[in-house]
Write a sequence for this structure.
């Protein structure tokens, strides 16, 4: 065996390994004995056909492939031992020639993190910002939620809720066909197509209308993008929104435990302040971690970015509530390859931040005890209302390790925040 270490970059070792012909021949012999016992060859009992006959039957390529599938892992292990490489994960292996047998191995290595002088970082949190206008916006949204709809005899106007019969087609094929569907007119609405709401404005009850709209170039169903859709609509009932008056009765309507409009506004204000403080805290933590990462030298294999991309994809499909990745890709009109490419920058940042936080935790000797893990499990149980089944799932060694990593990261970020504020050294 001859091993050449071509280069090492991005925490990856690039090896070229030329295998000893004698080792390959020995492996071919072992493959012959394995395969001849499994292959039916006319004129021979199983396991009794000569090697030359077996090779003619299954092809020498098949025999060699079986031999290399057993020999390459052993040879690879010898190669990384010889090169004193401690791999992070399984390598990417490519056989580049078969006479003699040569394969290339790209070996992901453990990341390298060299921290900068993060103790010198000084940052000031942004002031929490919100005002009475924000409260007014929430109150107005609540009014719309509590509104009633009343029939009117006038033509359709923006903001109205109309009952429609819709027939449409694109190039003679049905597009949208619904009867008695409710539709609220919003100026500039892209649903179902841009311009649809504007075509309805001014129509009267029982009036019919035909019109054509162009499907936008970024329409989720790519095969329809840029085509024209012919619509035929009939307006049924027309309703206008009746907003409740802003008084104490409205406050009770929103929440029976709230007696006055003043109390409702105070509650909204407190919730907005809490939300703004939480966002400011999260933004400041992100700023601090970014500053520590900027001072650090971090090198890691692309494999870690791929793993982070996988996690981001999994998170998005979970957020869909069972729709799955395929459904999500259709909704955004992208291929999986395009989406993965799009997720690479945030995945790279997440990988770098995670490695920096791990290294800081080691440097600062930040630890998480069993009691803290138990307390976190209890908090999760309380927040989710889970039963014994959830407790068992959270108590497995794997789950406890994940919780430990989460808490360690959380404590490390908090420690860095204190440093950035000048509260500790």
């Amino acid at each position: 065996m001859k091993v050449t270490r071509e280069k090492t970059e991005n925490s990856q070792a690039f090896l070229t390994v030329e295998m000893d012909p004698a080792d390959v021949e020995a492996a071919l012999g072992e493959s012959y004995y394995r395969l001849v016992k499994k292959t039916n060859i006319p004129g021979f009992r199983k396991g009794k056909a000569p090697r030359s006959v077996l090779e003619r039957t299954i092809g020498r390529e098949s025999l060699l492939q079986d031999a290399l599938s057993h020999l390459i892992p052993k040879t690879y292990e010898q190669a990384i031992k010889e090169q004193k490489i401690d791999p992070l994960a399984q390598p990417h292996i490519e056989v580049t020639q078969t006479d003699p047998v040569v394969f290339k191995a790209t070996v992901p290595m453990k990341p390298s993190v060299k921290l900068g002088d993060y103790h010198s970082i000084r940052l000031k949190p942004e002031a929490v910002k919100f005002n009475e206008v924000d409260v007014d916006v929430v109150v107005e949204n609540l009014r719309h939620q509590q509104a009633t709809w009343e029939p009117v005899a006038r033509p359709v106007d923006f903001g109205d809720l109309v009952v429609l019969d819709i027939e449409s087609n694109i190039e003679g094929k049905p597009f949208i066909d619904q009867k008695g569907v409710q539709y609220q007119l919003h100026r500039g609405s892209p649903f179902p197509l841009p311009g649809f709401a504007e075509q309805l404005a001014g129509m009267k009850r029982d009036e019919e209308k035909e019109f054509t709209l162009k499907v936008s170039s970024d329409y989720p169903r790519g095969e329809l993008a840029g085509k024209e859709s012919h619509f035929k609509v009939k307006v049924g009932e027309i309703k206008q929104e009746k907003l409740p008056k802003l008084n104490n009765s409205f406050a009770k309507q929103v929440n029976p435990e709230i007696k006055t409009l003043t109390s409702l506004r105070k509650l909204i204000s407190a919730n907005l302040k809490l939300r703004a403080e939480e966002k400011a805290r999260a933004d400041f933590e992100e700023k601090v971690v970014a500053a520590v990462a900027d001072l650090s030298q971090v090198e890691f294999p692309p494999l870690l970015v791929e793993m982070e991309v996988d996690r981001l994809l999994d998170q998005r499909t979970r957020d869909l509530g069972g729709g799955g990745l395929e459904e999500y890709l259709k909704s955004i009109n992208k291929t999986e390859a395009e989406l993965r490419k799009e997720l690479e920058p945030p995945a790279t940042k997440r990988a770098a931040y995670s490695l920096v936080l791990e290294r800081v935790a080691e440097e600062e000797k930040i630890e998480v005890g069993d009691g803290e893990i138990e307390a976190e499990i209890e908090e999760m149980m309380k927040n989710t209302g889970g039963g014994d089944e959830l407790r068992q799932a959270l108590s497995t060694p794997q789950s406890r390790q994940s919780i430990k990593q989460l808490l360690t990261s959380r404590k490390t970020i908090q420690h860095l925040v204190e440093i950035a504020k000048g509260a500790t050294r």
Summary: The radius of gyration is 33 Å. The first helix runs from residue 21 to 36.
